[in-house]
UniProtKB/TrEMBL annotation:
It is found in: Cytoplasm. This is Dephospho-CoA kinase. InterPro entries: Depp_CoAkinase, P-loop_NTPase. The gene is coaE. It comes from Pseudoalteromonas espejiana. ATP binds at residues 20-25. Keywords: ATP-binding, Coenzyme A biosynthesis, Cytoplasm, Kinase, Nucleotide-binding, Transferase. It catalyses: 3'-dephospho-CoA + ATP = ADP + CoA + H(+). Catalyzes the phosphorylation of the 3'-hydroxyl group of dephosphocoenzyme A to form coenzyme A. GO terms for biological process: coenzyme A biosynthetic process. It comes from the Bacteria. GO terms for molecular function: ATP binding; dephospho-CoA kinase activity. Coiled coil: none annotated. Pfam families: CoaE.
């Protein structure tokens, strides 16, 4: 039996930020610079895809009514099952968190670019930064988060505020992050600063390779 993966040999940049901060726009820029991006949100969906071990376990626990007619997970129904039931929530977290972490570490290890980016909205909250060599916070004022998210997701301002309140406070993220990229400005300016950071990360990754035993 093979040992579980607990770390990655690649140099990893953890990219995070609150809802509506523009993580996707920045990660897309990094992909255009030939950097592999591993997205925790995408992986969270993959581990509950049809016929996956994750979804099969959820079906066994909650029953067939947890599925949509096309056989995919009914996320709204699942949310209702765990929203007011801590036992269900703890069971689901115990199932999914190990699956998500294993897939994240596998994908980080399989990356062949000079360094690899782990995009995770809850990077600090879920302690995923322990797998990263450096962290980059995509930062915007809370008012910008509210405006962008309400417009993008067609949700109420009150709902957006409750989502932000459930995440780590902005000032705490700023204190934890190694680098901060202001995304409350023209994207061309963001791109220019990101390219400078990218060159730094290439150097860090090269040094890491050079110093490896």
């Amino acid at each position: 039996m093979s040992k579980p993966i607990t770390k990655t040999n690649n140099w990893v940049l953890g990219l995070t930020g609150g809802i509506g901060c523009g993580k996707t726009a920045v990660s897309n820029m990094l992909e255009e610079l030939d950097v592999t991006v591993v997205d925790a949100d995408i992986i969270a969906r993959q581990v509950v895809a049809p016929n996956s071990d994750g979804l099969n376990a959820i079906i066994e626990y909650f029953g067939q009514n947890i599925l949509l007619p096309d056989g995919t997970l009914n996320r709204a129904e699942l949310r209702s099952k765990i929203f007011t039931n801590n036992e269900n929530k703890e069971w689901l977290n115990a199932l999914l968190h190990p699956l998500i972490r294993l897939k994240i570490l596998t994908d980080l290890n399989n990356a062949t670019s000079a360094y690899v980016v782990l995009v995770a909205p809850l990077l600090f909250e879920n302690n995923l930064d322990k797998y990263c060599n450096r962290t980059l916070l995509i930062d915007v004022p809370i008012a910008t988060q509210i405006e962008r998210t309400a417009k993008r997701d067609n949700t109420s301002i009150e709902q957006v505020k409750s989502i932000i309140a459930a995440q780590m406070p902005r000032n705490e993220k700023q204190q934890k992050a190694d680098d901060i990229l202001n995304n409350d400005r023209n994207l061309s300016l963001v791109h220019t600063e990101l390219v400078v950071l990218h060159k730094n990360y290439l150097q860090y990754a090269l040094q890491n390779t050079t110093n490896a035993p």
